[in-house]
Amino acid sequence: MKKSVIAKVISIILIIILILGVIGLVFLPDLYDLFKDASIKAFDAHSIWYRLAFYLCYVICLFIVYKLIGLFNVIYKKSPFRKEIEMSLKVMAVMFMILFLIVIIKSFFIPTLLSFVVAVLCFLISLSFYLLAEVIKAAICYKNEVDLTV
Known about the structure:
By secondary structure, the protein is mainly α. It has one domain (5-149). It has 5 helices and no strands. It has helices at 5-26, 28-35, 48-77, 83-109, 113-149. The longest helix has 37 residues, at 113-149. The mean pLDDT is 89. Keywords: Membrane, Transmembrane, Transmembrane helix.
């Protein structure tokens, strides 16, 4: 499948996000303190569980971006109806569900409206990725039947 201009731009943006994200991982406490509200405690003042959850969310997001880059490469270098695409989508659905759980647990201890909104978005995105994986799975079965018929 030939890459469109938009797909090339999105691929480049995802690669830039991944590179900046990996670099930002080293400076995460400083970036947190730089962009936080004045009423929020400094990163090091939070409990170890909060910091661990924050790092975990960050790493999960980097992993999702990495899987998206791989997904783009597989789709445009090979057929879009492949088992590895289905598996990548299911893995991303699980990652978003883990993000949902982390944010929901965080919301019990530090309740904010934004946390609940992010949790709901993560849940909906997780369901969307899972649904897309099931559609790809059905398309693979249909394609295999058509290939066997021909």
